[in-house]
Amino acid sequence: MESICKQAAELYGIPIETLCNIGRLPECCDLDPFQWTENGIPQVLVAMGIIGLVTFISLLLIESRSYFMSKVNLTRSLKYLPPLSEDGQIDDDVQAEKNKVAQMTENEIPTHNLVMRDVTKYYGGFLAVNQLSVMIDKGECFGLLGVNGAGKTSTFKMLTGDETISHGNIWVKGCNTVADKFTVYEMIGYCPQFDGLLEDLTGNETLKIFSLLRGVPSYMISSLVQRIAKDLAFDKHLNKVAKDYSGGNRRKLSTAVAILGNPHVIYLDEPTTGIDPASRRKLWDLVCHIRDIGKAIVLTSHSMEECEALCTRIAIMVNGEFKCLGSTQHLKNKFAQGISLTIKLETLPVMNGFQSGHSRAPSTALNSPGFQLNEYGLSVQQFINDHFQGATLKDCHRNYLTFEIPINVMPYSRIFGLLEANKSALHIEDYSLSQSTLEQIFLNFAQKQRSEEENKVLRKRKKEKKPTVTRW
Ligand SMILES: Nc1ncnc2c1ncn2[C@@H]1O[C@H](COP(=O)(O)OP(=O)(O)OP(=O)(O)O)[C@@H](O)[C@H]1O
């Protein structure tokens, strides 16, 4: 009967239920929806039940397997480690930190909030992170700097357990991120580079859910959410759904999620990207406060100003390796090649419709590779070359000339005296003398970073030659 009803429904181009309603085939009205037939409800209910059960068991197996596997894989190890440095140059601070971490005993590891020992990441045969070792104490903000593709996000992903570690170990308060994964999750907060937000929840709901997940007592949640949103300047948007948030407010919400629930270690992957300057200052204040109350923070940022403001120590990463490590002042003292002298020249008068400026051009004058200077620029350069031995013209942009002067060429007072005495004769409008900035140091290291195209070629070449991985 059922098949006849079906054929008739197809013939008329209407659903079976409608057939009986219009009185064409009253027999079709007798079809019981609870019969064990193709169109009956029981078959659908059973199918849904089976699918639910199978997927639930699969999920249980996957979770418990990763749990048991993690208990077994205490140490992941590569049989053949890559050379410590691609260019053979290992900074002494990086080596000293490596030695300290290598010599740490099992009792010493839990005394630090975060310890990374020889952390290495291979994607297939491509080496993205090479044997990083560092220990981070409470009250420290550790800055990871590097150009795009240096390996910062891969390092973060291993720290948070999003990516497997090809070699090495990470401990948070003495708990291994592989063996004690679930304990570690309770102790870390993470603001990913791209927001891991639930798009249909409001900011308020998001923060409440994460507070509950992090074990914040329910009577404290409302006031905590309000306070954190106020501190990060997005309290006005708490009732908007996440998908309607602006880019900057999304970063603030992600940062708020990372710091909820008092974690011991907080990972912030470019937290201030797209945030307005006023809110950025508020976020900095909050990060400083969290750092000062004894949390460990690992931060990446493309803003040198931010790193100088927040980080107690900085490491610059190039091609997956630490190239230097230390406080900002230490790096400046160690790597600054000279004093930076920036001179603003008066504008050259317009003559015969031509106005001379400075521009980049094939090498012209002594010590000014690639810059073409106007009359004022040339006389200033001559003056600098005559008085400051070894000075180099580093940059030339419109009326601004930047020279690098060797550090101990003469006392600062004499440099100021010379420039003051010759200011008007050299048509100098303004000048400033400063120590090399962190940005200049960063740019010097960044030159050694491979481009993504070079990395692609390397990946292709190494695809066939995978490293041997053994697990103990
Ligand atoms: N899943 C992956 N598979 C293969 N290669 C990857 C993968 N993830 C990253 N890489 C490569 O590893 C290298 C390091 O990437 P990573 O994202 O860690 O760099 P990054 O320093 O965080 O860059 P950015 O500042 O752009 O975020 C890059 O060459 C990248 O192409």
From TrEMBL:
<keyword id="KW-0812">Transmembrane</keyword>
<dbReference type="GO" id="GO:0005524">
    <property type="term" value="F:ATP binding"/>
</dbReference>
<dbReference type="InterPro" id="IPR003593">
    <property type="entry name" value="AAA+_ATPase"/>
</dbReference>
<keyword id="KW-1133">Transmembrane helix</keyword>
<keyword id="KW-0067">ATP-binding</keyword>
<dbReference type="GO" id="GO:0016020">
    <property type="term" value="C:membrane"/>
</dbReference>
<keyword id="KW-0547">Nucleotide-binding</keyword>
<keyword id="KW-0472">Membrane</keyword>
<dbReference type="InterPro" id="IPR026082">
    <property type="entry name" value="ABCA"/>
</dbReference>
<dbReference type="InterPro" id="IPR003439">
    <property type="entry name" value="ABC_transporter-like_ATP-bd"/>
</dbReference>
<dbReference type="InterPro" id="IPR056264">
    <property type="entry name" value="R2_ABCA1-4-like"/>
</dbReference>
<dbReference type="InterPro" id="IPR027417">
    <property type="entry name" value="P-loop_NTPase"/>
</dbReference>
<feature type="region of interest" description="Disordered">
    <location>
        <begin position="453"/>
        <end position="472"/>
    </location>
</feature>
<feature type="transmembrane region" description="Helical">
    <location>
        <begin position="41"/>
        <end position="62"/>
    </location>
</feature>
<dbReference type="GO" id="GO:0005319">
    <property type="term" value="F:lipid transporter activity"/>
</dbReference>
<dbReference type="GO" id="GO:0016887">
    <property type="term" value="F:ATP hydrolysis activity"/>
</dbReference>
<dbReference type="Pfam" id="PF23321">
    <property type="entry name" value="R1_ABCA1"/>
</dbReference>
<protein>
    <recommendedName>
        <fullName>ABC transporter domain-containing protein</fullName>
    </recommendedName>
</protein>
<dbReference type="GO" id="GO:0140359">
    <property type="term" value="F:ABC-type transporter activity"/>
</dbReference>
<feature type="domain" description="ABC transporter">
    <location>
        <begin position="114"/>
        <end position="344"/>
    </location>
</feature>
<dbReference type="Pfam" id="PF00005">
    <property type="entry name" value="ABC_tran"/>
</dbReference>
